[in-house]
Amino acid sequence: MVKCSCSRFLFCVNAAIYPWFLVWVHFNSHSGLPAKLINGGIAGIVGVTCVFPIDLVKTRLQNQRQGQQIYKNMMDCLVKTVRSEGYFGMYRGAAVNLTLVTPEKAIKLAANDFFRQHLNKNEKGLTVFKEMLAGCGAGMCQVVITTPMEMLKIQLQDAGRLAAQQIKPASMSPTKLAATRVLSRSYNAGPSTATSALSATQIARELLRTQGIPGLYKGLWATLMRDVPFSMVYFPLFAHLNQLGQPSRDESAPFYWAFFSGCLAGSTAAVAVNPCDVVKTRLQSLNKGASEESYNGVVNCVSKIMRKEGPSAFLKGAGCRALVIAPLFGIAQVMYFIGIGEFILDLSPFN
């Protein structure tokens, strides 16, 4: 009942913010906001296409339990994935990301602008605290898209790990192996193994049929715990790093400096919130391997990971996550520097 009430509260908060946010978007369409949304969307699509295999590796490494390791490290995971699932196996779940990354980036960037503008009404500039507050608001708004996107993506990404666990009898006792072979997806009725070729659409339909909309928003609190601090770290850090590269107050930073600032701010924020990302991944994984723990919430998940795997488990996949996020935000800066959105809307030529 408490979880349900908390989720309803968050939806009410977002429902209260969005009408004003959409009105602001409408009346500010002349100020370059549509171009920013186009740039963010293109950056997201290009970035996801480039770094998605590393994101898949991150999910699989984070879901490994102690004593059941199939992958030794990032390179080992990539090699084994290509061998067992082929090249396109590295892109399991990419379609979900490519479909939803544009609205996610649009909401995040537009919401950050929205909050920055309202926190800077006196036009004296923003303090670090207000910059963090604007980032916090942007992070809260984006989870409306991010949570179901991550929920569906994780099921598809982790399927290969569970399949590999089934065909590795030497590393399991007969009891564990038998348990794995009869394992069924919690959202799929009847016997099913991790090798089932379920699509994101099928998973979404089954979740909606059995659990309703809350089924797609499992792990909402953990997603907020990750995305809100990430935005609070990234936006102010990028603004200040980028400012260091400006020749003068009226000139923009050079292209290479903006790229470097985006990469550094993104990777720093990614590693800082990696423990929350591990918790989110574990909570959103519906299908478990043999003898793998189930969790009843954020606190329960943190407690069990700490007790059974130790503090180092919260840093699983941190390197992969930094490698994913750094280019994503670096590419975003490339899009803004080139001005693709402005060119498409015929506002200015390519930079």
UniProtKB/TrEMBL annotation:
Transmembrane segments: 7-25, 37-57, 322-345
Domain of life according to the entry: Eukaryota
GO biological process: malate-aspartate shuttle
UniProt GO MF annotations: L-aspartate transmembrane transporter activity; L-glutamate transmembrane transporter activity
Keyword Transport: yes
SUPFAM superfamilies: Mitochondrial carrier
Major localisation: mitochondrion
Substrates-to-products reaction catalysed: L-glutamate(in) + H(+)(in) = L-glutamate(out) + H(+)(out)
InterPro entries the record matches: MCP, MCP_dom_sf, MCP_transmembrane, Mito_Solute_Carrier
Record's GO cellular component terms: mitochondrial inner membrane
Residues in Solcar repeats: 31-118, 126-244, 253-342
UniProt keywords, alphabetically: Membrane, Mitochondrion, Mitochondrion inner membrane, Repeat, Transmembrane, Transmembrane helix, Transport
Membrane protein topology class: Multi-pass membrane protein
Location relative to the cell: Mitochondrion inner membrane
Similarity comment: family membership: Belongs to the mitochondrial carrier (TC 2.A.29) family.
Protein's job: Mitochondrial glutamate/H(+) symporter. Responsible for the transport of glutamate from the cytosol into the mitochondrial matrix with the concomitant import of a proton. Plays a role in the control of glucose-stimulated insulin secretion.
PANTHER family reported for this sequence: MITOCHONDRIAL 2-OXODICARBOXYLATE CARRIER 1-RELATED, SOLUTE CARRIER FAMILY 25 (MITOCHONDRIAL CARRIER: GLUTAMATE), MEMBER 22-RELATED
UniProt-recorded name of the protein: Mitochondrial glutamate carrier 1
Organism: Oncorhynchus tshawytscha (Chinook salmon)
